[in-house]
Amino acid sequence: MTSAASSSPASPARRWTLFGRDTEEPHRVSTPLELLFDLTFVVAIAAAASQLHHAVGDHHLGQGLHRFAAVFFAIWWAWMNFTWFASAYDNDDPVYRLLTMLQMVGVLILAAGVPAMAEGHLATVTAGYAVMRIPLMVQWWRASRDHPQCRLACRRYAIGIGLVQLLWLLRLLLPTEYGWYAFYLLVVAELAVPVWAEMSEPTPWHAHHIAERYGLFTIIVLGECVLGATNAIGNVIATTGWSLDTALVGLGSAGLVLSLWWSYFLMPSAETLHRHRNRSFGWGYGHFAIFASLAALGAFLEVAADALKTGPAAGGADHGAVTPLLAISLIAAAVAVYLVTIWVIGIWLERDFARLWWPLAGGFGWLALVVAAVALGLPLPWAMVALVGTPALAIWIFERGRQADHHAH
Hints:
The protein has helices at about 30-55, 60-90, 95-115, 125-145, 150-170, 175-200, 205-240, 245-265, 270-275, 280-310, 325-350, 355-375, 380-385, 390-409. By secondary structure, it is mostly helical. It starts with about 30 loop residues before the first helix and ends with a helix. About 40% of the residues are buried.
């Protein structure tokens, strides 16, 4: 799709040109600017997870999940759009850098507006989202000027992003009762823009680079789980002191995060995306559930620590009336969504339902047993440790199947 001459971002003659990158470029990795861009999202994800944690403690689970999903869509969509653009057109010139940094400012504005969104005030979040999206619209317009092979696709991106962003701003004028209906319609419009744009001429994104970027963002969201669990355990220790229960919850939380990381990297997405570029939409869009479930898991691990505060070690005090069954059910639901999405995406990419079905079935069987055991009286700390067996069993079954396939060939 692109020539060898257009694949070198270091060429002085092309320093200010948004050329199409070479899809076969060797050793393509994330740039320092992309890593800095990811770092700004840590604040936004932490703010969204914190609001979900407080919503559960205040007995507003449904409302909390709804608003968490809404703000996380804005976070994920802005990150994803930048990532795919950068994979195709990152030339690292000063204009590109400045526009990317402006998007980072938008992320921070959005994060600052998350607490107000919990009260129904959307102006700050919408403003932050606009600051993230308008620079990207300019980037696509620059690419349409400099890369004639994909000019129509780039212009469709620029026009689509601009029109939908205008509608997001106009949405603020609607009465509250119509605001959420408009939100869902605009989400559909956002998702449709890349499909419409890529129909004309696929942009030159790099499969291995994209897979690495998604893997790094998965690690960032897993880091939020670690942070949430650490803060929660620290609060428990400050309230009740060290105990076996506290240690078990900490051990279970750490084991769960590590095994979920292992689960994500079981399948080689990069090679399959490189061979089957037409499967990228299902793979890329499907990651919303992976990222959102991990961010929610960080909040729910804090809920589990809250449940410890209602136990005997806390003198029977009621700190939000979070029951062990509610806490383990929320964690189990987040783990279930995460594992199902990984396996569905794996089946979508590899077209291998039989090999990927058994690990998922085994993990879900164990997950159901743990939740049932808590309902029957198993203490939450021991259930947290047992819950690690869900992804661990799925990993074991998958690896055994892969070894059997290897020996068969």
